[in-house]
Write a structure and sequence with these properties.
Length: 328
């Protein structure tokens, strides 16, 4: 985040998760921030390498996600871990920190909890995909996976498709029932499906958010009604290569990152994407020709969105006098 005065010491502030929650943007603003990040990637308005990571335990990963938004001169890094077995320990499966730097000097200016940012920016990207490729009228949306991401997605769905019924599936039935109950308490129509396939077949939009590695490419086009939009948050855990090859449109959030992951062994058998979400935002057309084929969007998580969201949150924190100044 740019600092007003570049003389003397630059303050370093820490924003806790509780303080961060007080500074979250509303859903409309989240969609705008996600659109800004995706658009910038498409038109070379940002610098963002593919994630680099280490894997200290089977199925676990830690990723570094640096990014620079040229417009606004915002630069920062997300350091995120995904340990699926943490749930059995009573710990969150995903943990993250986000750091912002002064672009002029490189000095770190903010450090904050990144887990909540990860959840809301991921759901916002799904919301952008729904706006771009979803049907004009959405009556039913399937959520495959009933964890943190399901709850964040319900917020976005409420803004974009407030009348849509939610059909929720999770391998752990009690988790699906809990999310459905929360949705009904918030005034949404929600039910629980007995399988992922049943949930998907009944919906016009399917959002898959299962634990990475809990399955492998099990969703084919035979799961879907014509014209269904599939938004795969869980990489290729559900969405199959056949689904990508037969899609009317196969879009990703970041082409380079997708190609890097495919080269490393993920997305086995997948074709090259036909477009990116940023290209769809910036360019005319691109949503495919006539027909009733399905659409697939696979978003992998872009560090640029974390930086853009964090900058907006820190601006709000400054306005409210939040954040602890740390000694250097």
């Amino acid at each position: 985040m740019p600092v007003a005065e570049r003389t003397g010491s630059v303050p370093l502030r820490y924003l806790s998760s509780a303080e961060l929650d007080q500074c979250l943007p509303d859903v409309d603003t989240r969609l705008e921030l996600a659109t800004t990040a995706l658009s910038a990637l498409s038109r070379d308005g940002a610098e963002m390498p593919a994630k680099i990571g280490v894997h200290p335990r089977p199925g676990a990963l830690l990723h570094a996600m640096p990014a620079w938004l040229r417009d606004g001169d915002l630069v920062g890094l997300k350091w995120v871990s995904a340990y699926p077995d943490n749930n059995a320990r009573g710990l969150p499966a995903t943990n993250a920190l986000v750091m912002l730097n002064d672009a002029e000097t490189g000095v770190v200016t903010w450090i904050m909890d990144g887990t909540r940012i990860t959840a809301i920016r991921t759901a916002a990207v799904s919301g952008v995909a729904l706006r771009l490729l979803g049907p004009d009228r959405v009556d039913r949306i399937a959520l495959v996976g009933a964890g943190v991401q399901a709850r964040s997605h319900i917020e976005v769905i409420g803004a974009l498709a407030p009348d849509a019924e939610l059909v929720i599936y999770d391998h752990h039935l009690e988790r699906a029932e809990a999310v459905a109950a929360e949705a009904r308490t918030a005034g949404r129509s929600a039910s629980v499906a007995g399988s992922a396939k049943k949930a998907a077949r009944a919906a016009q939009v399917v959002i898959t958010m299962a634990r990475l590695g809990s399955a492998s490419q099990i969703m084919g086009s035979d799961w879907l009604a014509p014209g269904t939009l599939v938004i795969a948050v869980d990489f290729d855990t559900h969405a199959s290569a056949e689904l990508a090859r037969s899609a009317r449109v196969f879009a990703v959030d970041d082409r380079d990152q997708f190609l890097s992951l495919r080269a490393s062994g993920r997305f086995d058998g997948y074709p090259d994407p036909t477009t990116t979400l940023g290209d769809l935002i910036n360019g005319p057309g691109g949503a495919g020709g006539p027909g009733d084929g399905h659409f697939l969007v696979n978003h992998l998580g872009i560090g640029l969105a974390d930086v853009v969201f964090a900058n907006d949150i820190c601006r709000r924190a400054m306005e409210h006098g939040l954040g602890m100044e740390l000694p250097r």
